[in-house]
Structure formats: structure tokens, C-alpha cells
Design a protein that fits this description.
The complex is a heterodimer of chains A (219) and B (517).
Chain A: H1 4-22, H2 31-63, H3 69-88, H4 101-132, H5 138-153, H6 156-164, H7 173-209
Helix pairs in contact in A: 1-7, 2-3, 5-6, 5-7
Chain B: H1 4-12, E1 29-32, E2 41-46, E3 61-66, E4 74-79, E5 90-95, E6 103-112, E7 115-118, E8 122-126, E9 148-154, E10 163-168, E11 180-188, E12 196-201, E13 213-217, E14 227-235, E15 238-241, E16 245-248, H2 260-281, H3 292-307, E17 311-314, H4 323-342, E18 346-350, H5 353-369, E19 381-383, H6 388-402, E20 406-410, H7 416-426, E21 430-435, H8 441-447, E22 450-453, H9 455-465, H10 468-499, H11 504-513
Parallel strand pairs in B: 17-18, 17-20, 18-19, 20-21, 21-22
Antiparallel strand pairs in B: 1-2, 2-5, 3-4, 3-6, 6-7, 6-8, 9-10, 10-13, 11-12, 11-14, 14-15, 14-16
Helix pairs in contact in B: 2-10, 3-4, 4-5, 4-9, 6-7, 9-10, 10-11
Classes of the chains: A mainly alpha (219), B alpha+beta (517).
């Protein structure tokens, strides 16, 4: 029964969602909204599961002085700092308003840290591009040339070099960039999207029919 | 089927509503001047191209009138370039030389650079002077014309309690007009009233293609009750009532007709998948092409075993309601079984609590199936944070410190994809990624050893298990989806390309047919 009940629930809910997409009549009409609300409620409660798990593992690491326990100590301190300030020192329900303690932490600690991580992406893009754009074979060379055109075509350098080489207007790097992005790139992306959509439908059907059971821990 | 299907789709396709009727370029309308007891008639038309406030001259508009549509039209007056403008885009003319009770037809013409431009014929308008003429009445130079062609109908494809209104906007409702105050919508259950104002809307059209304003009335509408509506245009302190539309009843529909094409295509796909599942169950061999990324799973886990290091599994940053996360977790089951068999440590840091719960069940079951339940512990799957970059920082820290030999990224990823994959690359881990986020695929391709592109992620579970039923669904997806759909798409693309030179309306219809509602 441990396996059957989730399978039956999945099949019923999955089919219900498919039917409600095509049947607007009640009781199907509002079912999607209702089920979405159920999901939100379950997710909200589930946050505690995650938070408690994070605390449990971190406290265990600190108390047993496991390797790299200092990072866990910082995690615990940060967790309680923002929780206590948010709950007790930020004006209750107005905790999110400008000037509250929670807001201060958000603006001066969370945002800069988050932005720092995001900013690292620039360096990672550079290192990944350096590896990807090496002309090792014919395909990689095509990639390199396309990348050069697009990068140059989106900067003033592209216009300058197009003028210097006396290229006809249709062959300006900016225009070539548009051609590559609007035709080759869009065609490739759409092919991938079609494949993804078919894959999603096929996987959903397998799950609804109970053929696919790996997500329930089965074969 | 490929030939018949486009024809069926064409027949199934329906277009909701009729287009409103307008008569460019003039779109001439006329009505009895409100408040004028002499029965004068006011005409309104759109200015022609070139007749705007920046122009220095423009030919006169000549006003013609007749008592019948087929009768002789006589020129009664003309409106010059320097005459007063009703709005930046419209002009008005008041015909005061009318006989009470007579009906009139109007048209306008103008000699422009392109030759003679004639307007539509408008009429009949019947002059209805009062018995007592009030000569002291002060009339506005410009009057507001009402919204026209108002129609009300049950909102299609819904669960009731909604009526849709559609009207052609007032001629005074010109783009950017500060004087036009929008529309008030009135409703009653009796055609004679009393009408109650139920909503106010802004100026302008909501459907540019059909040049109409559309509004849904969902305010305490009861199914089965007859309603009547009119719309009042507000302009510079004046108001003008439209025609009364109705009776109309709201109701629920049993089938979403705008999704008929989706239903048809889905039925074909599902039918084909089911056929190939039963085909595979009969024991017949199915050819599935090799997927390098999935072939490498054994090798990747084996490498971690040889090196005595961990395997990291990152199931994306989306929750369990995302199909990519579910697809990612199905692969986790296979990976966990291998790590159990090889006695290799597995770490699954997750960013969603529900994913943590599901992943634990999967890993636990995999260890049980591998005959190694004692190797499993709950701490193999742990939660870090819901925050995108917090999670990326957490995983990066773990990767740098613990230096896993193998990292799997399977699920939905956003901007953190490259941050994670490059960090993994920097420590020399073998990396297998899989995602259905097209924008992140190039990053994974650049930074990982193997990448499952889009549909390969969803095929992974079937591919790794080699179970006939699952493989049958893959085959059905390929035949039903790619072969039929793509052939059909090719037919419509060719048709659209050919007709784009001759009949653009046909091309628009094709685009509408395949738009998702």
C-alpha cells in the first residue's frame, strides 16, 4: 500500500489537471487554483523541514567539531540573527518596511552578498568562453567565428571594423549578429523547446499511468 | 494522417467574435446633435493623412447630402484646413439646414495628392426637432460621439458568471487625448432600466487587430439571468450613450473550444505513446539512439569510487511542481543505486524542502534495492537554502572543500548554472549536466563533460532502466511527436511562407490556430 496510494493519488490528480485544462465547467473550473493553494500551504509548512534539517546538521557539525565546523557556526549565527531581528526587532508585521532591522540586514548584508555571487558570473563566463571558443576542430571553429561576430556586432567595435573593411550594409557585423540570433539561434532554440515539450508530456503520461516510479523511490 | 490532420485542425479552429465594422480612412458617422431642439445633425470623421496640426495647408473636405442612399448627393458645405478641429485626429461639421422629420444620408470627399478620396456613406439620420424650439440653448462646438456596435455575449470557455462586452470606441477617443475620460458601463435586467453603473474603463482599444474595446463583466453576474448593457463615453464634461445590447445570459462551458487544436494534438501524441508502450510490452525490440551523457553515468560513479571521493548530485533549484526536478530525481534513483553498489559516498544538497523529502525517499529506496540499506543515512540529502545565490555559494563552498570526483547537475537551473559548473570544472570533477532550460544549456555544454539537452533529461529514466514500457513511451514520443508534429509544422510553415506574399490574413489565422490559450 505504501507504493499504491501515492500512485493512485498521482494518477487521479494528474488526470484531473489534464481534464481541467480542457473543461472550464465547474467543478473543474477552479480546481487548478484550489490545488495550487494546497500546494502553497504544503510548501509553506515544508520550509520548516528544511530549516530544521539545516540547523540539525550545522549544530551537529559544531558540537562534534567536524571538519570545516566554522562555516556551520556562521550559518547558525546568521540563521538566528535574521530570525530574531525579523521576529522581535522589526516592528512585527511591518518587518519588511524600509528602516526596520530586517530591512537593514536585507539591504546591507543579504543584497551585497547575493550581488557578489551574481557578479562572479562575469568571470566564470570569461573562463568558460576561453575554453569553449578554442578552434580545436571544424565545429569549434564555427562556434568561435559565430561568437566573434556576435560579440563584435553588439559593440561599437563591430560598426567601426565594418566601416574600416568597407563591408556592404547587409554584411555589417551588427546585421550579421541579428541574422545569427534571429534565424540560426531561434531555430535551434525552438527545436530544443519542441523536444522539451514532448519530453514533458511523455514523462507526465508515464507518471500518471504509473509506469514511471523512480520518483517514488521505485524501479 | 499528415495530410488529413491539417485539414481537421483547420476545421476545428474557431475564431471568437466578429470584427467590428469601421470604414477607414474617414470612418464617417453622424447623429442628431444632443440638446439641440432644432434637430440639427452633427457629422464626425477621421482626418486624412497630412491634415494634422503641423501641416501648413490641406484641401477642403466637401460635405454632400441626400435624402436617399441612391439619390443625388448635393454639396451642402465644405470644411477648410483652418476650420476648428474636434480633436487632433477628427473633425466635426454641424448641418443645421435640416427639415424636422426628414432623413438624410451623408458623404464627404476631398482632393488629395493621391486623387479623389471619398468617404463611406452614412445614413439615414432622421432629424427630430422639438415642438418647442429653445433658441437660448447653448450648444457645445464639439460634441462627444458614443461608442458604437456594442455587443454583449457570454464569455467563452469559462466557468460562468461572466459576460463579455465589446464595442467600437468613440470617435472622440483618440490616442493621447486628455479630454477623453473613458467609458462607464451600465447594466440592467430590464431593457427599459433602471440601469446601474457597474464599471468604468479607460480610453483606447484593447484589441488592436480588430480595433475594439473588450471588457469582461464578472461583477455579481448570475448564470441564466438576462442582462442588458450600454456604454457611456465621457468627454470634456459631456457623455454619450451607446446602443443597448442584450439580452444576454452567462453560462458555463463543458469544453474549451480555443484549446481544441491542443486537444487534438495531445490525443495523437498520447495515442502514439500508448501504442508503442503496448508494442514494447509484446517483447519487440525498439531502437533507441545512444545518449552519451547517460552512457557515462556508470563511468562517472566508478571514477569517484576509484578515487575514493564523493559523488555530488544537484537536483536544480526548483520545487517538486517542476517537471525537470522530477526528471532529475528519477536519475538520482539510478545514481544512488550505483553509489550503493560501489560503496561510494553520495551528497545531495538541495534548495527546496519538498525536494529534500522526495530525494531522501528515492535514495533510501535505491539503497534498499541495492541490498545496502545500512549504508544509507538521512544526512546524505540535506537542505541548504531556498535562495538562488545562497544555494550557489553553499554548493560552491562544499565543492571546493570536499572536492568530489563526480558532480551531477540534473534539473532546472538559472543563472547559477555556470557558477556551479565552472567551480566543479576548476577542481577537475567529471560533470554530467541535464536541463530543459535552453538559456543555460550553452553554459553546461562549455563547463561540463556531458550534457543532457532538453528532452534527453526526460528520457534518462527510461534509457537507464531499459524497461520495455518506458522505452516504448520514448519511441511513441519520437514517432507521435517529432514525425507527425514536425511534418505538420513544415506544411504550415511552407503555406505561411507562400501566403505571406499574397494573403497575410491567412498567415495570421495559422498563427492564431497554434497559439496556446
Amino acid at each position: 500500500m505504501k507504493r499504491e496510494i501515492p500512485l493512485i493519488l498521482t494518477a487521479v490528480v494528474g488526470l484531473t489537471f489534464v481534464i481541467q485544462f480542457f473543461v472550464p465547467h465547474e467543478p473543474m473550473g477552479n480546481l487548478s487554483n484550489t490545488l495550487s493553494k494546497w500546494y502553497s500551504i504544503i510548501s509553506a509548512f515544508a520550509i520548516w523541514l528544511g530549516s530544521l534539517n539545516l540547523l540539525k546538521i550545522s549544530i551537529e557539525k559544531v558540537s562534534k567539531r567536524k571538519k570545516d565546523w566554522m562555516f556551520s557556526a556562521v550559518t547558525i549565527a546568521s540563521f538566528f540573527l535574521i530570525l530574531i531581528i525579523g521576529l522581535f526587532f522589526s516592528g512585527g508585521r511591518q518587518y519588511i518596511e524600509q528602516g526596520s532591522g530586517f530591512d537593514w540586514l536585507y539591504r546591507n548584508m543579504y543584497s551585497p552578498l547575493s550581488a557578489t555571487m551574481f557578479a562572479l558570473l562575469a568571470f566564470f563566463v570569461a573562463s568558460a568562453a576561453y575554453r569553449a571558443f578554442r578552434a580545436r576542430n571544424a565545429q569549434a571553429t564555427v562556434l568561435l567565428v559565430a561568437a566573434f561576430i556576435i560579440m563584435a556586432g553588439r559593440t561599437p567595435f563591430g560598426e567601426w571594423i565594418s566601416n574600416m573593411l568597407f563591408l556592404p550594409e547587409g554584411w555589417w557585423l551588427g546585421n550579421l549578429t541579428n541574422v545569427i540570433m534571429n534565424y540560426f539561434n531561434v531555430a535551434g532554440q525552438r527545436a530544443i523547446m519542441i523536444g522539451i515539450s514532448l519530453g514533458v508530456i511523455s514523462t507526465s503520461l508515464r507518471i500518471i499511468l504509473g509506469i514511471e516510479r523512480s520518483h517514488l523511490g521505485g524501479e | 494522417m499528415i495530410i488529413v490532420l491539417p485539414v481537421i485542425i483547420w476545421l476545428v479552429h474557431q475564431r471568437a467574435g466578429n470584427p467590428s465594422i469601421s470604414y477607414p480612412p474617414y470612418d464617417l458617422t453622424a447623429m442628431i446633435t444632443p440638446g439641440d431642439s432644432t434637430g440639427s445633425i452633427t457629422l464626425n470623421w477621421q482626418t486624412l493623412s497630412g491634415d494634422d496640426e503641423t501641416a501648413v495647408s490641406f484641401p477642403d473636405y466637401r460635405i454632400y447630402r441626400s435624402n436617399s442612399a441612391e439619390g443625388t448627393f448635393e454639396k451642402i458645405d465644405s470644411v477648410g484646413f483652418s476650420d476648428f478641429r474636434a480633436t487632433p485626429a477628427t473633425r466635426q461639421y454641424r448641418d443645421t439646414a435640416v427639415d424636422p422629420g426628414s432623413s438624410y444620408y451623408y458623404k464627404i470627399s476631398c482632393n488629395t495628392d493621391g486623387g479623389l478620396d471619398e468617404s463611406n456613406l452614412f445614413g439615414p439620420v432622421i432629424s427630430n426637432a422639438s415642438e418647442v424650439i429653445d433658441t437660448s440653448a447653448v450648444l457645445a462646438d464639439i460634441i462627444v460621439f458614443p461608442a458604437s456596435q456594442l455587443r454583449a455575449f457570454d464569455s467563452p470557455n469559462d466557468n460562468g458568471s461572466s459576460i463579455t462586452l465589446e464595442w467600437k470606441i468613440s470617435p472622440n477617443d483618440v490616442f493621447g487625448s486628455l479630454m477623453f475620460g473613458g467609458y462607464s458601463v451600465y447594466r440592467s435586467t430590464d431593457p427599459d432600466g433602471p440601469f446601474e453603473m457597474i464599471a468604468e474603463t479607460t480610453a483606447g482599444v484593447t484589441d488592436n487587430d480588430r480595433q475594439v474595446k473588450i471588457m469582461a463583466d464578472g461583477r455579481e453576474v448570475e448564470d441564466g439571468i438576462e442582462y442588458y448593457y450600454y456604454v457611456e463615453a465621457r468627454w470634456n464634461g459631456q457623455t454619450a450613450k451607446s446602443n443597448v445590447a442584450g439580452p444576454v445570459k452567462s453560462g458555463q462551458q463543458w469544453f474549451h473550444t480555443a484549446r481544441a487544436v491542443s486537444f487534438l494534438l495531445l490525443s495523437i501524441l498520447v495515442g502514439t505513446i500508448l501504442y508503442y508502450i503496448s508494442y514494447a510490452k509484446s517483447g519487440k525490440e525498439l531502437f533507441i539512439r545512444k545518449i552519451a551523457g547517460l552512457e557515462a553515468v556508470d563511468e562517472a560513479v566508478g571514477r569517484a569510487t576509484e578515487m575514493g571521493r564523493k559523488v555530488f548530485y544537484i537536483p536544480g533549484i526548483q520545487d517538486m511542481n517542476n517537471m525537470q526536478t522530477i526528471a532529475g530525481l528519477t536519475i538520482l534513483g539510478r545514481v544512488a543505486k550505483l553509489t550503493a553498489e560501489y560503496d561510494t559516498k553520495l551528497d545531495v544538497p538541495v534548495s527546496r524542502s519538498l525536494v529534500m523529502v522526495a530525494a531522501r525517499e528515492i535514495v533510501k529506496e535505491a539503497y534498499l534495492n541495492a541490498g545496502r540499506p545500512d549504508y544509507y543515512n538521512d544526512d546524505m540529502v540535506y537542505y541548504l537554502t531556498d535562495d538562488q545565490f545562497g544555494y550557489a555559494a553553499g554548493v560552491d563552498g562544499l565543492v571546493i572543500r570536499q572536492k568530489p570526483a563526480t558532480i551531477f547537475y540534473q534539473g532546472a537551473f538559472f543563472a547559477e548554472s555556470l557558477i556551479l559548473a565552472e567551480t566543479g570544472n576548476s577542481i577537475g570533477a567529471i560533470q554530467i549536466a541535464g536541463t530543459a532550460m535552453p538559456a543555460q544549456l550553452p553554459f553546461f555544454v562549455a563547463a561540463c563533460d556531458y550534457t543532457l539537452i532538453g528532452e534527453e533529461l526526460f528520457a534518462a529514466s527510461a534509457y537507464l532502466s531499459r524497461e520495455p514500457k518506458l522505452l516504448g513511451s520514448l519511441k511513441g514520443q519520437d514517432i507521435g511527436g517529432k514525425l507527425v508534429f514536425l511534418t505538420m509544422a513544415t506544411i504550415f510553415i511552407v503555406l505561411a511562407t507562400i501566403f505571406s506574399f499574397t494573403n497575410t490574413e491567412f498567415v495570421d489565422t495559422i498563427a492564431r490556430m497554434f497559439s496556446v490559450h
